[in-house]
Amino acid sequence: MRRGWMIAAALASALLLGACGSGDGGTPPAGAGAGAGEAASAGKGAELDRDEFRRDMRGLWEDHIAWTRLFIVSAVDDLGDVDVTAARLLRNQKEIGDAIKPFFGDAAGDRLTELLDEHILVAADLLTAAKKGDDDAVARASDAWYRNGNAIADFLAGAGVGEKSGLRSMMKGHLDTTLDEATARLSGDYEAEIAAYDEVRNHIHHMSDALADGVIAAFPDRFAPEGDDPDAASIRRDMRGLWEDHIAWTRLFIVSAVDGLADVDVTAARLLRNQTEIGDAIKPFFGDAAGTRLTKLLNEHILVAADLVTAAKKGDDKAVAAVSKAWYRNGNAIADFLAGAGVGEKSDLRSMMKGHLDTTLDEATARLSGDYEAEIVAYDEVRSHIHHMSDALAEGIISANASAAAAGDSYDY
Predict the structure, then answer these.
(1) Where does residue 105 fall: left (phi above 0), alpha (psi -120 to 50 degrees), or beta otherwise?
(2) What pLDDT was estimated at residue 9?
(3) What is the spatial distance between Cα 306 and Cα 21, in angstroms, rounded to a whole number?
(4) What region, left, alpha or beta, does residue 189 occupy, with left being phi > 0 and alpha being psi -120 to 50 degrees?
(5) What angle do CA 138, 141, 147 make, to 5 degrees?
(6) How far is Cα 198 from Cα 35, in angstroms, rounded to an integer?
(7) Cα dist. 395→54, 127, 237, 385, 388 in Å?
(8) pTM for the complete prediction?
(9) Does the pLDDT at position 39 exceed 70?
(10) pLDDT at 227 over 70
């Protein structure tokens, strides 16, 4: 544990020294404007889909808050994965910086990554000080954290992504809600912590959408015109978000269950709530009974998975084999239900569900064995797969709904 914080402190010092030599954090580095112009020129003729860009921006920030939460859990509860979790969280900051490089240039992307790294490392200092009960250190780290938030906002404003005041307000909102989340964890108020995380998530959706729209406004020629079907765009966006939430809370449950944390019950309840939200999402298209049925199948998916983790922790191979068969049968039942609703072909949906179960099983197995690096690799596979799966489900819903509308049918399973 101490070694991880020493590494973080060393990285923080290096970043802060680099920042001192880089001038005002709110101004893009020299050459950033030229890089952006070159990127824009190079991209002419290659129009990007606006809705896909917004979804991808949300995905980066969903990853940001999920790994921030996982780091808070690991740091506060002194788990063995704190160093690799911190490294994975820092990788996300690079991915966010890399996402703006095609528009603003490499130097600007690198500078944003630098500021975001500082955002994470100062947050780690703040958490450490709070755990120690060092009020003076908390005050210093908090001031530094909010200064860094302003620097990020000012940098984005300088790049033309939005107005400084609006961006500063958004960054402050992100820090405020994240601080509420961490404070609740430190106090052991897990229900308040989950409520705070939901506020973090709601806010980050607004923030990421605003940032995406800011990039689009700065480079309108790089993007195709808005699509003529806003409902379809909403389905794709919401389906991606629901399944991002699914895998994030699945991971948090695996961590809590395997490591025997005190929040396991409230974490399970939050994960089950996500299954209701997924079921509710299809009700406008397939009816209330269909949504309720899907929720029931998804709840079984979670509860059987919990039984599987329990059996594996006990080393009960016979129970593991029996529960594993039940889990894969449930996966097929979910796929068959969706196929019956016209969302896709049964074989394709069964294959997708099997892929989701396989990758999630790899993740849980790695956690149980204490191989935290392999666990993160497995989670990244889970996440990559769930993006393909959620996008396919969204397209299936759009297609089925269009076909039903053309035929004058109404779904009510």
Answers:
(1) left
(2) 35
(3) 51
(4) beta
(5) 135
(6) 37
(7) 17, 42, 11, 16, 11
(8) 0.86
(9) no
(10) yes
Per-residue pLDDT at 246 exceeds 60: yes
The predicted pLDDT at position 408 comes to 55
Residue positions counted in the chain: 413
User: Of 239, 205, 246, 217, nearest to 60 (Cα)?
Assistant: 205
Tokens read off for 108: 């600007």
For residue 244, name the pLDDT band (cuts at 50, 70, 90). Answer: very high
**41 pLDDT exceeds 90?**
no
What digits encode the pLDDT tens for the residues 111-143?
A: 999 999 999 999 999 999 999 999 999 999 999
**Cβ 1 vs Cβ 78: under 8 Å:** yes
Tokens at residue 214, please?
């800011």
